[in-house]
Write a structure and sequence with these properties.
Blueprint lengths: L11 H9 L4 H4 L4 E5 L2 E8 L2 E12 L2 E10 L5 E3 L4 E5 L4 E3 L3 H11 L2 H16 L10 H8 L6 H12 L4 E3 L4 E9 L8 E7 L2 E7 L5 E2 L2
Parallel strand pairs: 3-12
Antiparallel strand pairs: 1-2, 2-3, 3-4, 4-9, 5-8, 6-7, 6-10, 10-11
Helix pairs in contact: 3-6, 4-6, 5-6
């Protein structure tokens, strides 16, 4: 299942942070690194040792547009991470705050279909496992192992998928990394152009983004 995800004992996202560290501090504090992996466009930034990386996934599930986020803590102290720290500012100034993992799981229990589960898991795993820069120590792969144990009903599978995939609230120790999906309630529409804003480690990471075409999950 982890095809290409593991190459040793060091998280690849942490390795990526080390690569960014060779960029002079003054430039790194302002510079956004753009790259492509697995057909998706990613943006990354490092500040004070903390690296934030993300990509807009080209689909939406139920009412949600979905963002893949990976965070690596190369700082000497632990930092708290939660999806509500991620927001999206539209071109017209409207701001959408990401929903909590609990809210997403409850929505999946109420409304998700088998197609939603397949589309969500397939899209997230494709983006994660095809990205050679990401290897989380505390992310989807570790959550997945418990989430799907002995789950039979479609509603529970949807909840299990959401609980494994959603960025979970966590306190991230130094040298550790995590990944997860961030869900924005946007009436089943793509987010469009705007800015992804992540408040973490006492810093504000702001990324301008272009419009991404989305595929609806039926």
């Amino acid at each position: 299942m982890a095809g290409g995800l593991y190459d040793g004992s060091v998280p690849r996202l942490f390795q990526f942070a080390c690569v960014l560290a060779v960029i002079p501090l003054g430039l790194r504090a302002q510079q956004i690194i753009d790259f492509e992996s697995g057909g998706l466009k990613y943006k990354a930034m490092t500040r004070d040792g903390v690296t934030v990386m993300f990509s807009l996934l080209p689909l939406h599930i139920r009412d949600y547009a979905v963002l893949q986020v990976a965070i690596s803590n190369g700082a000497p102290v632990s930092w708290s991470i939660k999806p509500e720290d991620c927001s999206f500012e539209k071109a017209d100034g409207q701001t959408i705050r990401a929903e909590s993992a609990t809210a997403v799981i409850l929505k999946m229990i109420q409304k998700a279909t088998r197609g939603d589960v397949i589309k969500l898991v397939t899209a997230y795993e494709a983006s994660l496992f095809n990205n050679t820069q990401i290897r989380s120590t505390n992310g989807y792969e570790s959550r997945r192992q418990n989430a799907f144990a002995e789950v039979s009903s479609t509603k529970l599978k949807a909840a299990a998928a959401a609980s494994a995939i959603a960025l979970a609230p966590t306190k991230l120790p130094p040298g550790q990394s995590t990944d997860g999906a961030v869900f924005y309630a946007n009436q089943g529409k793509p987010l469009g152009a705007g800015r992804v804003i992540v408040n973490v480690a006492g810093e504000t990471f702001a990324f301008p983004v272009e419009e991404v075409r989305s595929e609806h999950a039926h």
